[in-house]
Amino acid sequence: MIDLHTHSTASDGTLAPEAVVDLAAAQKLTALALTDHDTVAGLPAALAQGKKRGLEVVPGVELGIQWDGPEASGGQMHLLGYLFRADDSGLCDRLSWLRDRRRERAQRIVEKLKAAGVELSFGRIQEIAGGESIGRPHVAQALIEAGAVSSIGEAFGRFLSPGRPGYEDKDELTPAEAIQLIRTAGGVAVLAHPGTLKLKGAALERCVKELMGYGLAGLEAIWSSHSAEQVRELKALAEKLGLLITGGSDFHGENKPDIQLGTGRKNNVQVPDSVLAALRQRAQA
After folding, report:
1. First-last CA distance in the chain
2. Does 29 fall in a domain?
3. What is the CATH number for 102?
4. Which helix (H) or strand (E) holds 59?
5. How do residues 142-167 score in pLDDT, each as one tens digit?
6. Residue 258 within any structural domain of the chain
7. Are residues 16 and 71 in the same domain?
8. Is 266 left (phi over 0), alpha (psi -120 to 50) or beta?
9. pLDDT greater than 80 at residue 17
């Protein structure tokens, strides 16, 4: 079995890239994709550890998408990229731009929280993040340290979700730009967790067809927060449209403690290695 959706301390996970690989090896996975948000900084360490542990590490990344088309429904769109050249200059430049925007967003969140009566140190948030890809979970951890909340969930519920006093929109790529970035770097673009689009039936199909026009190659049907019915529907849609089916846990370590590497939430993620073989075939094509 494999896991094609994981996060490390290079973005908003709580395990170092090497530790994610070690955990995957301990659980006897045969392959792992490290898909940190807007960064490939964790890939060199993960690839090196994978060689030591005899586990294949797949180059990956997760990108947030600015989604405001006719099918936009208040949901969120993310894109997963796989098997690209991690040193591609165009991809690296754009990822650097996204990380700069993340840093600026975090600074604006700190100012909003200050206005709401919660004092946080941006420097401390940077320390918690460790790498360059700063996300809301890092702010949430700072809120816990400051005694403002007692958990990550409370931090999001009270301060960091849309409509809450510390929420701030994030600069993101358009669907066409994100897919093209991955394809130009030799990779395969997959729509992450389509359930977060909050679309069903014909509306979902129209959205996916639009993304296919930009070069989308697959759907992440198997995901920790998809119901069994959603998985069936997404697999059927992928088969109808000739798209690849992928899957992963969306592992974040203690930032999402109910999601386990390789198995998801209550063993609802089971991804066979044939999924990776199909991805690799598409990349080579």
Report:
1. 24
2. yes
3. 1.10.150
4. strand 56-65
5. 999 999 999 999 999 999 998 999 99
6. yes
7. yes
8. left
9. yes
Tally: H helices and E strands in the chain:
10, 7
Contacts of 246 (CB under 8 A, 6+ apart): 4, 80, 82, 190, 218, 219, 220, 221, 222, 271, 275, 279
pTM for the whole structure: 0.90
pLDDT score of 71: 73
Poorest-pLDDT segment among 118-127, 131-140, 259-268:
131-140
Residue 136's domain comprises 96-160
Residue 21 lies in a domain: yes
Per-residue pLDDT reduced to its tens digit, 242-270: 999 999 999 999 989 999 999 999 999 99
- The alpha carbon of 256 is separated from its chain's Cα centroid by a whole number of angstroms, namely 13
Domain of 77, CATH number, reads 3.20.20.140
Whether the CA torsion 112, 117, 123, 128 is positive or negative: it is: negative
Looking at residue 63, its amino acid is: L
